[in-house]
Amino acid sequence: MILKELGIFSQNVRNNLVVKTILEVNFNFNIIFIQKLSWITIRSILSSVNSEGIPLVEVVNHLNWLTFAREPDMSKECPRVTIFINIRLASFHPSFHKDIIDHRDIILTSFFVNNELFWIINIYSDSSHFVIKYLKNMKINICNLLIMTGNFNICDSLWDPSFPHHSSISDNLIIIADSFNLNLSMPTNHVPTRYSNNNNDSNSVINLIFLPYSFSKLDNHTILPNWQLTSDHVLLTITIPIAEANINH
Fold it and tell me: What is the pTM of this model?
């Protein structure tokens, strides 16, 4: 199978019914990134330390998608990111690399396209920005990173013209992206990516996409309208041309 481009869909969504719908209706996409997902309790399993058993949990699954998610440690908070790769791409041998980045809010996945290894990263960074600090302090050498995307929870004038301030946390994020040879992609339509449920708070742009410097057209992703009333985050979609993705450095 020769793959010329990747269709990518990304959304921050907690509602599992919405996630199921996303997987059902978006089979035309190759990769789906989900942030802030909820985990489902399947049943309780026997435990020698808890008479009521230990809950067995998992993320939403679908027969048309390969699911990549870190296994939860029940003594800690559950992971908040996952990547779904279309079953059509199974022959590209996608793999989850906890051995390289071991963090509950980061998913690093690799796969082979046209006999070349590529990488993708999905990130959820909460208001503490611990993930940003974690990545900045790590020394990770990854070539051919196709996309870094997710919910970064940073309001900044760099990507939101309606926001008047700049943050040093944003500078750290740009430094991280640059270390991966990535640049911020601006959307084709400048609209919020998060709609506030509180009338006292403004809508914001906190879901971002970073793409390789080598791409001839960086600014080509689309922010779709508020897709579901059950989600306050809209979704980002982009088509990545694999022919331009030979980005070894």
Answer: 0.87
